[in-house]
Amino acid sequence: MLKYTLSRLGYMVVTLWVIVTITFFLMHLLPGTQLKNEEKLPPEIREQIIASYGLDKPLMVQYGLFLEKLVQGDLGNSMNLDGRSVTDLILQGFPASALIGIQGVIFGVIIGLALGIIAALRRGTWVDNLSTVIAIAGVSVPSFVAAGLLSFWVGVKWGILPVAGWESWEYSILPSLALSFFVISQMARYVRSEMVEVLDQDYMKTAKAKGLKRSAIVVRHAMRNALIPAITVLGPLTINIITGSVVVEQIFNIPGDGKYFVDSITTNDYTMIMGITIFYAILFIVAIFLVDLLYGVIDPRIRIASAKE
């Protein structure tokens, strides 16, 4: 297990370095920064500010300094928000973003698992057909469209939940549900497919012939073997939550990192753009890493295969 963990950790570090490097150089290849394009500032003041951000140094020197600060947890200072620390700003908005993101995954996994299992056990019935329709709709409908529909019907039309703001936990439910649509569809589709395949295996028929109850067969054998492949989709689904939350936060007026990210793009605040991009890249890579470890715990064959490599 230790060798498996270390190998995955090594991949994670290399992947993160590649993402950081690409992000850094892409941002510097853009035609100018907000400071360089600011025509209202006198040339002396503009050059002084550029120097304070280290933009007057050679590119490779800037890259080295950026990596050095990054290792220390310093993502630089915002160019627009009064020079405040990018790290502090991200951490300030992260709790709201994390809450709706984690809830979105939880809602999606619970509802998706239930739909997938029921659909597999009721193959060919209206329940199975309904699960298929939900899966297709979840893939086809973007999170911002789901957010608009939920806010209109559940918030405005029916008045069940608040639409916009961030005053209590209730304000996080609709955004989380909007983000969960894609997770629900993917989990339902994967779990149903794997459950159907497992239920048709010979050892399942043998267990049934031995007189085991259907509930025991499903819980002890079918669900465990079906969930192993389904767990692998949790990592990729995380990126959908991360990217979708940016727009959803704007729709529901949530004071999270999505708001900072959109504002930084409109104001060309490249330090903020890089900071949020790298921060969420770290979260995504860590999520994939944890899913890999979980996969190895549930299915020891993965660890054995990794050790042989």
From TrEMBL:
Q: Which SUPFAM superfamilies match?
A: MetI-like (SSF161098)
Of the GO CC terms on this record, one is: plasma membrane
Subcellular location per UniProt equals:
Cell membrane
Give the chief site where it resides. Answer: membrane
Q: Which residues form the ABC transmembrane type-1 domain?
A: 94-295
Which residues span the membrane?
Answer: 9-30, 98-121, 133-156, 168-185, 227-252, 272-298
Q: Which PROSITE patterns match?
A: ABC_TM1 (PS50928)
What InterPro entries does its record include? BPD_transp_1_N, MetI-like, MetI-like_sf
Question: Which PANTHER family did the record assign?
Answer: DIPEPTIDE TRANSPORT SYSTEM PERMEASE PROTEIN DPPB-RELATED (PTHR43163:SF6)
Family assignment?
Belongs to the binding-protein-dependent transport system permease family.
Q: What is this protein called?
A: ABC transporter permease
What's the source species for this entry? Answer: Thermoactinomyces daqus
| Taxonomic path | Bacteria, Bacillati, Bacillota, Bacilli, Bacillales
